[in-house]
Amino acid sequence: MSINYYQQHAQRFFDEAVRVDMSALHDRFLAYLSPGARILDAGCGSGRDASAFLARGYAVEAFDASFEMAQRAAALTGLPVSVMRFEDFSAPARYDGIWCCASLLHVAEADLPAVFARLANALKPNGVWYLSFKLGRGEREKDGRRFTDMDEARLRELMRALPELKVKALWQTADKRVGRDEAWVNGLVMKVG
């Protein structure tokens, strides 16, 4: 459902997202990484964040579930952006950082534990993972997209199932897009080394 939405509205979504200033969140994430570290932008959307990480000298890989979004992200970043769903992702521990900005929220809540385990597996020891969800609880559909909303308590609950992960910080932010008044829950999680 959500993939079809992004296929049909890719250019509008790209235009709305690509110029949003995410530097405060980038800085908080990158503070845990060494210069030149390898980052996976998982569910990269427009490629905005992958592009920012590249500009700061990091080695970046990216994927998105929507072919149309992946094409736009590849054009923006110059990276080969894979077309893949979170449920199909698998990698050995190769990433120093994983960035999941407003992307995991399209995974069904029942599938999140397995997806979280796959992402945790892809992190190197002492690697850091950023993730964000719209603030709330449970699943809903809106405008042809499925959302899994999350609050801090539910996010901590899901992370407890993965003892190799330690929650470093959970905090709320307001939506940075013009005309949006939604709240977000953000998390930084580290893989115990």
Provide a descriptive summary of the structure in words.
There is one protein chain. By secondary structure, this protein is an alpha/beta fold. The chain contains seven helices and nine strands, in the order αααβαβαββαβββαββ. It has a seven-stranded mixed beta sheet, with helices on both faces. α4 (48-55) links the parallel β1 (38-42) and β2. The chain is globular and about 40 Å long. The model has no long low-confidence stretch (mean pLDDT 93).
**Beta-strand residue fraction:** 25-35%
Which strand order does the major sheet show?
3-2-1-4-5-9-8
Helix-strand makeup class? alpha/beta
What is the averaged pLDDT score?
Answer: 93
Task: State the low-pLDDT regions, or none.
Answer: none
Radius of gyration: 15 Å
Question: Nutshell version of this structure?
Answer:
The protein is of the alpha/beta class and 193 residues long.
Q: Which key phrases capture this entry?
A:
two-stranded antiparallel ribbon, 193 residues, seven-stranded mixed β-sheet, 31% strand, globular, alpha/beta
